[in-house]
Amino acid sequence: MTDRDIDRPAGHLTIGPDGRPTPSLQDIYAQDKIAPPDHMRQESRVEMGNDDIPVERYFSKAFHDLEIEKVWRKTWQWACRLEDIPNVGDHIVYNIAHDSLIVVRTGAGKADIRAFVNSCLHRGTMLRKEGGCVKQFRCPFHGFTWNLDGTLKEVPGAWDFKHIDWKDFNLPEARVDIWGGFVFINFDHEGEDLLSYLEILPEHFESFDLENRYKAIHVAKVMPCNWKLCAEAFVEAYHVPFAHPQSLPYYGDSNTQYDTWPGVRHINRMISAQGVPSPSLGADFDPEKTRTLMERDTPFYKSAEPVVNGQTPRERFAEIARKKISKSSGRDVSGISDAVALDLIQYTVFPNFVQFGGVGLAAGYRFRPYGDDPERSIMEMFFLFPKAEDGSHPTPPGIVWLTEEQPWSTVEAMGSAAMVVDQDTDNLMRIQKGLRTSRKPGATLATYQESRIRHFHRTLDAYIAAE
Fold first, then answer.
1. According to the model, what pLDDT value does residue 158 have?
2. Alpha-carbon span 353 to 365, nearest angstrom
């Protein structure tokens, strides 16, 4: 389904907002050497009003409890990648608020993956504290044991449990489905299927081939703020000039396009151009500074090849990216667009999954509550690299868990992305504390540049209100 296929109700806008700095993203794309895919040449906005967002939803325990019942137990959530559990018995533990699941491979087929509630049916002991590879699930307290398919295998002292019906003593399950190499879970057995839930995402990501990637880096940290605040910091570029000023010479912050689509509840998008200076630097900004500073901050774009006379930094960086991606992946990507080679193409999947498109390195985020604390959260960042042409790839690493005191830049493999997240972490702590002390009952959002946040809260409100 594309924007052209959707009925446009009142309030749906297909042109940019009045007063937006020029050039727009679409103006930039009109000058690119190789044009982007059709869906990136479209722009869609849904008018959502300008009401404030109640600040109490960022720290209220009552609202947190509502989210557990109405959101976390009703939505599709990314749990792991297929390459995390390649062999029979491989499993991860996925925790969300009070709930815990064992996501396990039970057979050799792509679909042979189950998600069991991580609780012994005897007296409730957690069966697994962490992932690994096992042949069965045995309770460490009294030894009740289940097979990988969740059927009861062993009851120590079974003579004293004649009241148990073995065939009905299976581990309870959540739903499991797969898209793009991601394993999703859903506690709600009555809700829509995953493909319906993902709406326009599969079509837009068709050429990005996420299933033929592997997770090369995965870093996690407990953050000093509500999970929604954490997520909101990474879905808009409005804060870039003040939080990340080093990127202005090569990042089109106020050129960023924000897309919401009528009838699309779970997906929204932003696309930010790279290799162009921020409009705030003025039309006379020296393009040589764009080139040298982007090379300084992102060594991937360095090249020994001489600069072609008259070539813009964006054209040069796109060509460098095409050559390096082709070499590293063993695949010819010389025909990909400048936008796909360079730009930050970011989609949110409600409630907590953010994935970037592209054909080289593809990054993503996941945001979750930290246990039962509405004022702390878990943030994760991961990077997907292309598999070799024969499908082979290195063994994916486990999650690197940082302490709350460790900066993201502790993980050198994250490159310049770590500095950006470190800059945001301090601000997130200040926002959480500031909302607590504020006498203003609501947070005020920009109409356009923070429209993805408003779209998120509109969907959140619908889930909270659902019977």
1. 97
2. 6
Residue-wise pLDDT tens digits, 249-305 = 999 999 999 999 999 999 999 999 999 999 999 989 999 999 999 999 888 899 988
Higher pLDDT, 31 or 327: 31
The CA distances from residue 145 to 104, 130, 238, 353, 450, in Å, are: 15, 17, 53, 34, 50
220 and 354 both lie in a single domain? yes
CATH number, domain at 327?
A: 3.90.380.10
Residue 302 CA to residue 319 CA, distance in Å, equals 11
The domain of 144 spans: 76-186
- Reduced to 3 states (helix: H, G, I; strand: E, B; else coil), residue 291 is helix
CA pair distance 49, 307, nearest whole angstrom:
47
430 plus 311 within the same structural domain: yes
**Residue 8 pLDDT > 70, yes or no?**
no
Residues 13 and 95 in one domain: no
- Encoding tokens for residue 443? 């947070």
Same domain, 330 and 266: yes
Helix (H), strand (E) at residue 193: none
Q: Dmax of the chain from CA atoms?
A: 86
Mean pLDDT of 417-437: 94
Beta strand extents in 231-278 (DSSP E only)? 257-259, 267-272
Nearest CA among 87, 102, 100 for reference residue 137: 102
Could you tell me whether strands 213-223 and 257-259 are parallel, antiparallel, or unpaired per DSSP bridges?
unpaired
Residue 344, beta-bridge partner list: 272
Q: What are phi and psi of 162, to 5 degrees?
A: -65, -15
pTM over 0.90: yes
Residue 109 confidence class, pLDDT cut points 50, 70, 90: confident
The identity of residue 74, as a single letter, is K
**Which of helix, strand or coil describes residue 463?**
helix
Task: Give how far Cα 198 sits from Cα of 38, 203, 371, Å.
Answer: 19, 10, 26
Query: Cα(76)–Cα(74) distance, rounded to whole angstroms?
Result: 7
What DSSP letter does each residue of 72-88 carry, written as one string?
A: ITTS-EEEEEGGGS-ST
Domain identity same for 245 and 366:
yes
User: Which two tokens mark 29?
Assistant: 């794309």
SS3 396: coil
- Look at residues 162, 186, 210 and tell me which one is the last residue of a structural domain: 186
Stretch among 257-261, 348-352, 419-423 having the lowest mean pLDDT = 419-423
> What distance in Å separates the CA atoms of residue 305 and residue 289, rounded to the nearest whole number?
18
pLDDT at 50 over 90: yes
19 and 131, same domain (yes or no): no
Cα separation, 349 vs 347, whole angstroms: 7
